[in-house]
Design goal:
Blueprint: H1 2-9, E1 20-22, E2 28-32, E3 37-42, E4 48-53, E5 63-65, E6 71-76, E7 80-85, E8 90-96, E9 101-106, E10 112-117, E11 121-126, E12 132-137, E13 144-147, E14 153-158, E15 161-166, E16 171-177, E17 182-188, E18 191-196, E19 201-202
Antiparallel strand pairs: 1-2, 2-3, 3-4, 5-6, 6-7, 7-8, 9-10, 10-11, 11-12, 13-14, 14-15, 15-16, 17-18, 18-19
Length: 203
């Protein structure tokens, strides 16, 4: 916590970006430095190690490191997803769509990434090259998605509804309707948690 507080006080470009994420090892950070640029930096000394120029970063859109820290997922303009190879300092792939990208989730082994679209689908692609491996049709307009520990199932929220799906076969294994709007999901081991717009957390 002391280190994170010092980062906040000594930020390389104070006030220049509102969206900041850290890799799982707390070695690298990514910051939306402007409307057209992301910066990658080392946490230890706050030195910038890479700059990524992209058409536009939506600050309310996904920006997330993979569990192994190798990849960074960036949704921009609401209509495309960039997967950036942090170690290789290059884009791994871009996926473009006419539909809005609303949420992303890496599988625990970082092999797959699921991304939510406004056409009521959740698409699973291979992280290293973007090849589509599966597509799940949601029962409503999905907003959040999370892999389970095995990487074989997805939790998908759509409004008040939650469904668990085996993404390779499209088989729904569980359905649940919450009292109010589901706004967040977290799945760790056997525990699935959801947050709602009433400020509650349900396990």
């Amino acid at each position: 916590l002391t280190d994170l507080r010092s980062i906040g006080l000594r930020w390389p470009q104070p006030g220049s970006g509102h969206l900041v994420v850290f890799d799982p090892a707390l070695e690298v950070f990514a910051q939306a430095a402007s409307a057209t640029e992301l910066i990658l930096g080392r946490v230890a000394d706050l030195q910038i190690i890479d700059r990524i120029s992209i058409p536009f970063v939506r600050l309310d859109r996904p920006l997330e490191f993979s569990p192994d820290g190798r990849y960074l997922a960036v949704a921009y303009s609401g209509q495309a997803l960039l997967i950036y190879d942090v170690a290789g300092r290059r884009p791994a792939f871009w996926t473009r769509s006419t539909e809005v990208v609303r949420g992303v989730s890496f599988s625990p082994d970082s092999r797959w990434i699921a991304h939510v679209h406004a056409d009521r689908t959740v698409r699973v692609v291979r992280t290293e090259d973007g090849v589509e491996a599966g597509r799940v049709q949601s029962e409503g307009q999905p907003s959040r998605v999370q892999f389970d520990a095995s990487g074989q199932r997805l939790a998908i929220s759509a409004g008040r509804r939650l469904q668990i799906v085996e993404w390779a076969t499209n088989r729904v294994t569980w359905r649940f309707t919450h009292d109010t709007l589901i706004t967040s999901l977290a799945w760790q081991g056997p525990m699935l948690a959801l947050g709602d717009d009433a400020g509650h957390m349900v396990f």
